[in-house]
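In line with agreed milestones, the collection of sequences with tokenised folds has grown. One record among many is set out beneath this paragraph:
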Amino acid sequence: MTTITTQRNRVITEEPEADDVFVRVSLTVPGDEPGRLSVRHLPYQPISDYDAAVAWAVSMADQLAYPIHVVPLSYSDIRNTGRFQPICDAVASMDDQQRGAMRAVVVTTCAEVMRDCDDLQVRADCYDILTQLKVITS
């Protein structure tokens, strides 16, 4: 864990690992009840934005009363939170026709991204997805 100390506050973070795909900034703020604190999470950002997220947190830290946390996350970190459980349940409840339609959308989207995107990492990710779906054989 790394702590970056600003003039009157701190940013707490960890270096991203190879399997991290997202970064999330969390702010501790006063809660609804006096004396209680609450955590507010900013939206997930791609891990490529990690340095920008840390820079933003450092720039904002002195304006806040409590430390800011910048946390890199892997897919398994996110799955284990239960945040996407409703989506997983919805996919699990689909019949074969609905799953086939969703698969077709994923395949079409990944193929378009591989054709049109300039970012090599994004294209590689789409290639991996298409390989996992057995659309592409290695």
Q: What stands out?
A: The two ends are 38 Å apart (CA to CA).
